[in-house]
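User: Predict the structure for this protein chain, please.
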Amino acid sequence: MTTYLVPLVLIGGLTGTGVYLLLERNLTRMLLGLLLIGNAVNLLILVMGGDSGNPPVRGRTSHGQTGIADPLAQGMVLTSIVITMGVAAFVLALIYRAYRLTTVEEVGNDPEDSRLVQLSSTDAPAVEEDRSEPAVVTDADAPAELDALPADPVEQA
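Assistant: Here is the predicted structure, written as structure tokens:
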């Protein structure tokens, strides 16, 4: 089996561009990155599927080919196309919803993450745990204070 260099370079270029776009903060670019990575995976599956050959139908020949083409690679690519389309539709719906709520297509910093980064960057003294008393073990069958159902009055008596 011969490996052709052009499809492998194309797969690498599509994957690299897709990862670059996926790391952007713009949601539309993230979607385009997902689509490029999906197409790169489809090309990779087809390249790894092997050489072309006769159709996998009994009694059919194609241009004097001697071997039979592997139908698994084609079936996997069709499945991958459907999955990529579904993921793209889901991400597109998320983009539309985020744009309708915030009217901004850029993903901002999460305030909680920013707060945690500030806390970790300050030199706060480490909190030591008090290990002198054992942890209180509660009965899982007993009703807790925040249970939705009230406690059974028969059990309390």
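The domain at 1-53+69-104 is CATH 1.10.287.3510 (Helix Hairpins).
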